[in-house]
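Methods, example record. To illustrate the input and output format used throughout this study, we show the complete record for Disease resistance RPP13-like protein 1. The sequence lines were provided to the predictor; the line carrying structure tokens was produced by it.
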Amino acid sequence: MMRELKKLKARMRSVSKLLSDAEEKQITDAAVKEWLDELKDAVYQADDFLDEIAYKSLRLNLEEELVDQKDVLGLIERIGGEPSLRRTPTTSLVDESGVYGRAAEKEAIMKLLLSDDTKGQHLDVILIVGMGGVGKTTLAQLLYKEMVVSNDRSLKSSFDLKAWVYVSEELDVLKVTKNILKGVGLMNCDNMTEDQLHCELERKLSGNKLLLVLDDVWSDNRSQWEFLLKPFMSVRQGSKIIVTTAQ
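The corresponding predicted structure is encoded as:
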């Protein structure tokens, strides 16, 4: 395939050399101008086609090389719901030494956090969306820290309850619910059933203004999210959930 690609590219270069001569003659010759327009279209389409073929060829070769390397390294394919890559959990602690240029974003989201204009909703969800590595978690950490350890009393008292929960690839509703409960102060909940967890979380949240961060969310399973958020109907108006996600 690569040999044929080289031949086709050589022909394309030969045809392209005619362009300079045609560029001059098209001014006085309408037929040359029409031929030149058609040639340009053909050249551009062929160029795109070549790029696509070259990419697919390179990708195929790379995939074959990776398969060979997999065998050499003794790696096996796992079947089932186990995540392909173990991600490092996050906490609310932030290293501010490497944080630059997030002031505007932080200020904009802070205004949303402090706003009680919820349009009739007791609970607002604020999404921080972006590709991996762009600083979604760091931004959420900065905001959370501002609300937890700020020298400004009005900020610290903006929410009655605060919790940070790392979610990751699989949305384990039971685990996330337990971690939310622990975050808002109920540590002894590991042996509770799902019903007990829901009822206890609703009781804990009832009448309180909540700030919850759900970091590194991947799942978009609507039924799971609806089940997870059932106890949150008892929160006080102005409660917020910050969700960081790549989706």
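Annotations derived from this record:
Helices lie at 2-25, 30-73, 103-114, 136-149, 153-156, 173-183, 194-205, 222-228.
DSSP finds eight helices and four strands in the chain.
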